[in-house]
């Protein structure tokens, strides 16, 4: 029996019936998961056991998925529940052409607009080898904006023998068995081609005929073939003369109509693309007959040069008009890609192939492990890429055949879409997005911007202080987000333009709120896409001058942001004019959760008391965290009372305040203010902050407060003695690796050792060395590590390998020697924004990004740039 309002099919709740045909019933429905309306086409229960009709139903889904086009209704997917199968499709607003025809005659300009869009839609289908076979006014929707959408592509309606079959000749499906077999009658009687009516084999020219029938009906206001029964209608299709005198239209349009309605397949208009071209040219009424030419021979001879010259001028003008007039602005279309079965879609940066036909994205399984999936726009399903565990931030090669991506284990990888497993290119310390040029160079974010060959090898630091590099279309210049100078001095955030082989950079955008992504468009323009809060702006970019022009335009809203901090819009863009992005409802400061050593969740800190990079006070009652204002990109230190679940703000500067360190008695907090210096403040927030040292970026401070490790630029670090410290050498003493970049220093609780991260081996590893003047160095991690953290008694070190929280037993020996056990994993910690261990090492306070738990569909926008042309 038919569905009723309130009935459910999977996530779809039926709202009202729309219509019914031989192959299915169509309902308006609400997707309760994605909160959008849709049209669902249901295979009636009586047909659910028919293998042929099930096959056709499934084939319709695949055909619709292959026909992603602005003038063809988009499919959302197949739904099967409680013995019923349904197609979920775009719910197109407006009215059918059949409804429009019943309202009266249609003006010529409106007819031409409809005809052009129909021709474009059919041409797109024919290019993919698909013939509609059932084009008719009832299958053509017209939106309130005048956009034409063709429905029911690739599947003719089917009548069921017996008393339930339709007797309406206008909507009389007469399909039996195979779609291409001779002897089969398929289509709707009044609109099918003669070869269809005769049951002979058909090709794309059958659609050309149906196109002509529809145009005839719009022009004349009457149906071309309308018998009392289906049989009479079919007979008229085969033999009845066509009265073109009923059509009042310009000569060019009448000529096109005659070509489409030629019963001889061999002489009929061969390709709907020819109709599209004819309709794109101006359609005008014939001019009145001209006066007879003069009979005087001399005048004729005198006028011929003038006529010839005039003709040349007119011809040149016509050509100029043809070639210089503005190209039609394409229609903007949107559709969504849902998570593959058994997965969710956390916020990420979906990659769009250069031709705009393929999307690669990261989906998470039930264990929160991400894997890359490939979805072509002519397919319903996405396929996983093997070997891409923990993959994030994919980006395409220029030829679209390969993908590079980062992993949560801090590696830059490459995989070919045609097959084969991934291979490592380089270690990362981000890891964040990269960009691949036509010359085979990859830019990626390490500590700063680095470059490497797409074939692998040794990476080279391009410049300090940069992040999120993206090549411009020439493959030599690039833009990057910059927040610090090469010496570590804090700068106002901006977008710089650089070039391979040069250290020179110019500022193209001040006060940058996010990374900027170059977006060339099919019409030859280029834009920089960047975020302002949750909006994405498109700003015209002059490639020749290397400068922004004009004013930016908001093209997207509520776009998610990723990275740490959230500086990268969750989107990808292609030169083809296709864009993919994800929205987010959780762009806050994440959450803090207590875990035991097995990874069992013990308790979650109040949602009102959150922040990144938690650092526990010595007594474990408080945590210092970092919170960010996404609009201003300012970061401040907050102190959380873990027992009460309250938080109070400690710092209030416009710069980034980070790296909080508790004093041994837990009364004061030292922190770094980027580009300004190191400050100290009472942990309660009372009183003013005091300056510890100015101008340098702090990496760590000793428990007694007398020693400081500071940034010396280019990844080097040095130990300095603060005023009031021990007497003796006051000059900075180098610490860390001399052959790699250093970061994330932390003193042991007794101050005799320093743990830190260096990348001299090609990947980030955790090391320990004595506090100078001691000598020696010991590698702690075995296969990558970051975020080292000491247990309170100094006998255990914790770190992450990008996927797991790791632990290592260590044995200090008076600063002269040191021994470490074998690293072992405690529990998965993917996506963590930092952790801190309780004094006994039995509990861990872990920050996680709420957006990692989201299931945010990927929204694909085709011809996004057309919005800037209207």
Give a written overview of the molecule:
- With 870 residues, the protein is mostly beta strands.
- It has 4 domains: 91 residues, Phosphorylase Kinase, domain 1; 191 residues, Transferase(Phosphotransferase), domain 1 (Orthogonal Bundle), CATH 1.10.510; 268 residues, TolB, C-terminal domain (Neuraminidase, 6 Propeller), CATH 2.120.10.30; 258 residues, Neuraminidase (6 Propeller).
- 14% of the residues lie in helices and 37% in strands.
- The chain has 9 helices and 61 strands.
- The strands form 15 sheets. It has a 6-stranded antiparallel β-sheet. Strands 27, 28, 29, 30 and 31 form a 5-stranded antiparallel β-sheet that branches.
- Helix 5 crosses helix 7.
- It is elongated, with a radius of gyration of 34 Å.
- Spans of at least 5 consecutive residues whose pLDDT stays below 50 are 156-186, 286-326
Strand % is 35-45%
CATH uppermost class of the largest domain: Mainly Beta
Based on Cα principal axes, name the global outline.
Answer: elongated
Number of DSSP strand runs = 61
Radius of gyration: 34 Å
Structural class: mainly beta
Strand order of the main beta sheet, please?
1-2-3-4-6-5
Number of helices in the DSSP assignment: 9
Please tell me the CATH architecture of the largest domain by its name. Answer: 6 Propeller
CATH fold-level topology of the largest domain:
Neuraminidase
Average predicted confidence as pLDDT: 81
For the record, give the distance between the C-alpha atoms at the N and C termini, rounded to a whole number. Answer: 47 Å
Provide the helix percentage: 10-25%
Count of folded domains: 4
For the sheet with most strands, the description reads:
6 strands, antiparallel
Can you tell me the CATH superfamily of the largest domain? TolB, C-terminal domain
């Amino acid at each position: 029996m038919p569905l009723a309002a309130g009935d459910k099919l999977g996530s779809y709740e039926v709202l009202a019936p729309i219509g019914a045909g031989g192959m299915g019933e169509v309902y308006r429905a609400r997707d309760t998961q994605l909160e959008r309306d849709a049209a669902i086409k249901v295979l009636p229960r009586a047909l659910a056991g028919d293998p042929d009709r099930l096959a056709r139903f499934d084939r319709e889904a695949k055909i619709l998925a292959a026909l992603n086009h602005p003038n063809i209704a988009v499919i959302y997917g197949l739904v099967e529940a409680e013995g019923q199968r349904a197609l979920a499709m775009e719910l197109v607003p407006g009215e059918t052409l059949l409804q429009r025809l019943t309202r009266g005659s249609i003006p010529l300009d409106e007819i031409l607009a409809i005809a052009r869009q129909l021709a474009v839609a059919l041409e797109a289908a024919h290019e993919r080898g698909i013939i509609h076979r059932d084009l008719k006014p009832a299958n053509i929707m017209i939106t309130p904006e005048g956009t034409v959408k063709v429905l029911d592509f690739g599947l003719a309606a089917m009548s069921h023998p017996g008393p339930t079959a339709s007797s309406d000749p206008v909507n009389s499906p007469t399909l039996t068995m195979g779609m291409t077999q001779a002897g089969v009658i398929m289509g709707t009687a009044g609109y099918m081609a003669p070869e269809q009516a005769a049951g002979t084999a058909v090709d794309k020219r059958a659609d050309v005929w149906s196109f002509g029938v529809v145009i005839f009906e719009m022009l004349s206001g009457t149906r071309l073939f309308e018998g009392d029964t289906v049989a009479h209608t079919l007979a008229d299709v085969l033999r009845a003369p066509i009265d073109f005198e009923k059509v009042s239209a310009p000569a060019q349009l009448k000529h096109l109509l005659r070509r489409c309605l030629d019963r001889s397949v061999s002489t009929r208009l061969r390709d709907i693309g020819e109709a599209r071209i004819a309709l794109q040219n101006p359609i005008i009424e014939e001019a009145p007959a001209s006066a007879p030419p003069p009979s005087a021979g001399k005048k004729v001879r005198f006028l011929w040069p003038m006529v010839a010259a005039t003709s040349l001028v007119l011809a040149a003008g016509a050509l100029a008009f043809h070639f210089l007039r503005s190209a039609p602005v394409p229609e903007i279309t949107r559709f969504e890609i849902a998570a593959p079965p058994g997965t969710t879609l956390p916020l990420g940066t979906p990659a769009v192939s250069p031709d705009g036909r393929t999307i690669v994205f990261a989906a998470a399984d039930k264990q929160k492990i991400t894997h890359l999936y490939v979805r072509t726009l002519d397919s319903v399903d996405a396929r996983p890429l093997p070997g891409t565990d923990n993959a994030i931030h994919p980006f395409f090669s220029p030829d679209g055949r390969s993908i590079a991506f980062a992993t949560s284990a801090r590696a830059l990888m490459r995989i070919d879409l045609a097959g084969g497993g991934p291979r490592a290119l380089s270690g990362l310390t981000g890891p964040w997005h990269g960009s691949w040029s036509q010359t085979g160079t990859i830019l990626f974010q390490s500590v700063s911007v680095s470059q490497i060959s797409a074939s692998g090898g040794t990476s080279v630091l391009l410049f300090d202080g940069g992040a999120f590099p993206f090549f411009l279309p020439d493959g030599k210049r690039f833009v990057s987000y910059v927040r610090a100078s090469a010496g570590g001095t804090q700068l106002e955030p901006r977008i710089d333009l650089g070039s391979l082989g040069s250290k020179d950079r110019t500022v193209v955008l001040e006060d940058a709120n996010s990374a900027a992504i170059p977006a060339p468009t099919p019409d030859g323009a280029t834009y920089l896409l960047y975020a302002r809060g949750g909006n994405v702006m498109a700003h015209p970019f002059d490639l020749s001058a290397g400068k922004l022009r004009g004013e930016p335009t908001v093209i997207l809203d509520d776009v998610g942001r990723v990275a740490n901090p959230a500086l990268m819009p969750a989107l990808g863009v292609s030169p083809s004019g296709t864009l993919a992005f994800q929205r987010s409802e959780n762009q806050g400061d994440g959450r803090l959760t207590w875990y035991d050593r097995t990874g069992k969740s013990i308790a979650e800190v109040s949602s009102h008391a959150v922040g990144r990079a938690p650092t526990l006070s010595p007594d474990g009652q408080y945590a210092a965290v970092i919170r960010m204002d996404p609009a201003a990109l300012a970061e401040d230190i907050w102190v959380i009372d873990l027992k009460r679940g309250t938080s109070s703000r400690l710092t209030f500067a416009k710069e980034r305040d980070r790296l909080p360190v508790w004093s041994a008695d837990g009364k004061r907090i030292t922190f770094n203010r980027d580009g300004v210096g190191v400050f100290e403040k009472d942990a309660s927030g009372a009183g003013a902050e005091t300056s510890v040292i100015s101008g340098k970026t702090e990496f760590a401070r000793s428990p007694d407060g007398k020693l400081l490790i500071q940034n010396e630029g280019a990844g080097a670090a040095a130990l300095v003695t603060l005023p009031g410290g021990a007497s003796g050498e006051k000059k900075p003493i180098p610490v860390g690796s001399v052959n790699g970049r250093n970061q994330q220093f932390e003193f042991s609780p007794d101050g005799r050792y320093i743990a830190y991260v260096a990348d001299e081996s090609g990947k980030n590893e955790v090391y320990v060395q004595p506090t100078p003047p001691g000598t020696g160095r010991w590698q702690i991690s075995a296969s990558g590590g970051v975020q080292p953290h000491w247990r309170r008694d100094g006998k255990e070190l914790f770190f992450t390998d990008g996927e797991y929280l790791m632990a290592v037993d260590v044995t200090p020996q008076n600063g002269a020697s040191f021994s470490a056990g074998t690293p072992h994993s405690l529990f998965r910690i993917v996506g963590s924004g930092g952790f801190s261990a309780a004094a006994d090492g039995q509990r861990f306070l872990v920050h996680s990004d709420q957006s990692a738990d989201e299931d945010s569909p990927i929204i694909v926008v085709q011809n996004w740039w057309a919005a800037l042309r209207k």
